[in-house]
Description:
By secondary structure, the chain is an alpha/beta fold. It has a single domain (about 5-150), classed as Mannitol-specific EII, Chain A (3-Layer(aba) Sandwich), CATH 3.40.930.10. It contains five helices and six strands; from the N terminus they run E-H-H-E-E-E-E-E-H-H-H. Strands 1, 2, 3, 4, 5 and 6 form a six-stranded mixed sheet that branches. The two termini are about 15 Å apart.
Amino acid sequence: xxxxxxxxxxxxxxxxxxxxxxxxxxxxxxxxxxxxxxxxxxxxxxxxxxxxxxxxxxxxxxxxxxxxxxxxxxxxxxxxxxxxxxxxxxxxxxxxxxxxxxxxxxxxxxxxxxxxxxxxxxxxxxxxxxxxxxxxxxxxxxxxxxxxxxxx
Length: 152
């Protein structure tokens, strides 16, 4: 799976404006909605927040991958936010996050959702790449970094 086939350049936000978990998730859902990728913004937001309530999607090492499955999308959609000030996310390692990758997928399509989560996890193991994302100053830079990494 190539993430830049899912991620649209206009669905990247650097830096995110909000400083708390629920607000920043809402900000990324709103970014997807503003770009016409959601059939129902409220359903998508509730799916992601409901998943977050079951267990934090803060995976550790400054990364969060909030995600949800619902009927508010026809296909897997993605947004990325970079926080220049770390956000408390109740992560597994107890550390705040700076890289947020939001996924929303149809309730009946598990495969692409799992593949995207696996691909993101693999990319984030590259410490140098992760640091470049954290230091990015624009949405274009984040998209270009991801595109270049996917082309390796």
